[in-house]
């Protein structure tokens, strides 16, 4: 989880209180990190999280799919998106 301290400094401790299940071994992105990004960095789209706030865009499509799905679910929960908007 060193990347969390690199990216978030002292806020990493707050992220580590969440669900630290790793969603992808290449990027080390966890559910807790996605949840933190969605709640605290105010992204307004899946692309915003995938392209600007994580390294998910650098994965091949088969590895990125579960991450993108979790990102969409987290954004939908936080912003009250409909199923249509989530897709």
Oligomer: single chain
Sheet with the most strands? none
Provide the CATH topology: Helicase, Ruva Protein, domain 3
- How many β strands by DSSP? 0
- Briefly, what CATH class? Mainly Alpha
Give the total of domains.
1
Strand residue percentage: under 5%
- Helix content range: 55-70%
The CATH level-2 architecture is identified as Orthogonal Bundle
Low-confidence stretches: none
Straight-line N-to-C gap: 30 Å
Report on the structure:
This protein is mostly helical and about 90 residues long. It has one domain: Alpha-glycerophosphate oxidase, cap domain (Helicase, Ruva Protein, domain 3), CATH 1.10.8. It is about 60% helix and about 0% strand. It contains 6 helices and no strands. It starts with a helix and ends with a helix.
Write the layout of secondary structure elements.
Layout: H1 2-8, H2 12-15, H3 31-40, H4 46-53, H5 61-79, H6 83-86
Helix pairs in contact: 3-5
Please sum up the structure shown:
This protein has 87 residues and is mainly α.
Essential attributes:
single chain, 87 residues, mainly alpha, Helicase, Ruva Protein, domain 3, 60% helix, 0% strand, globular
